[in-house]
Amino acid sequence: EIARIKTGQVDLMDATRVRERFLEVSNSADSLLSDFREIEQNFRNLDREVREGIATWEGGKGALLEEFFGERDAIADSDQGRSFRAFWEFLMSPSRQEELSRLLQTVFDMPAVQSLEPDRRLLRIHYEWLKAGEAAQRTVARLSEQLRRYLDDQAWLENKRIMNLLRNIEGKALNLRQQPPDGDIISLDDVQVKLNLPLDRPLYSPPLKPRINTQLLVEGTTDNNADALFNQIYVDKSRLEESLRRALRHQAHINLGDLLEHYPLQQGLAELIAWLELATANSHCSFDEDQTQLISWYDSQGIQRRASVPLIIFSQ
């Protein structure tokens, strides 16, 4: 059928169908005007209900506004409300109004329509729609103005109540100044300001660069027993971390030498290496390679051992 229309082969309606279609359009136009007036009446009823509700309302503002907007949405979502919104957007376009006027005049000039002697007011039906729509919009505007005045009055009453409370407090304070009562007048929770000074943060410490000897290793032979390589000592790092936390509870900084004076090495060199691993992984620990500390301990045979390490400082 579309191909036939493109080639100019269009089946026109006969006079009977034209008259039937015109009567349908006329009835739809009157029905749409009735929908506009029904929407206006619904908003008038809502306006009256809101005024009555404001006069007797004892709850909060939010509950009243929720009830109002619920009723307003119910009106807007009805069949009449959807028709009103669609045609109101149409009426707001001057070009569409002119197009509708031109099409209506073309229809009225058709002989089949003239035989019905139609009401000439149908030529201006869109202006009647516009008047009815403007009346509905004015009702909505009055409703919004009523709500705005209600909110302004409520805000004024709340501000007045606050001012009365402040004056009451000031009056009681003046009376207490002349005759202060015994004991505390009022108590406030003690507040504590937590200070985070930028200089308390540790500075960046470059990682230690191991010195690796690139000398070629030559495989050697030995007659010593290798069982000692498999008898390794396990160091509990959680015990070392707990010792560090206890030491930092009473001071913000402590170096490794002072820390080991309170918590001496129990497992010798292996435990010292574990302390070095903890210091390397701790972001609040700093190394000073320009200064060294001498760490001493006694091995299992009672011989004193010493190791020189860089100055290591732990911070909270």
Quick description:
With 316 residues, the protein is mostly helical. The chain is 58% helix and 9% strand. It has two domains: 2-178, Up-down Bundle (Methane Monooxygenase Hydroxylase, Chain G, domain 1), CATH 1.20.58; 236-316, no CATH class.
Your description of this structure?
This protein is mainly alpha-helical and 316 residues long. The chain folds into 2 domains: 2-178, Up-down Bundle (Methane Monooxygenase Hydroxylase, Chain G, domain 1), CATH 1.20.58; 236-316, no CATH class. The protein is built from 10 helices and 3 strands. The protein has helices at residues 2-6, 15-56, 61-76, 79-91, 94-108, 111-114, 125-178, 237-248, 256-262, 268-281; strands spanning 253-255, 285-298, 304-315. A 3-stranded antiparallel beta sheet has the order 1-3-2. Helix 4 (79-91) packs across helix 7 (125-178). It is elongated. The mean pLDDT is 75.
Mean pLDDT metric? 75
Overall 3D shape: elongated
The topology string of helices and strands comes to: HHHHHHHHEHHEE
Number of structurally distinct domains: 2
Structural category is mainly alpha
Give the class-level CATH name of the largest domain: Mainly Alpha
Task: Give the assembly state of these chains.
Answer: single chain
Low-confidence stretches: none
By CATH, the topology of the largest domain is Methane Monooxygenase Hydroxylase, Chain G, domain 1
CATH architecture of the largest domain: Up-down Bundle
Please compute the radius of gyration using only Cα atoms. 47 Å
**Separation, N- and C-terminal Cα atoms:** 86 Å
Strand content: 5-15%
Number of H/I helices: 10
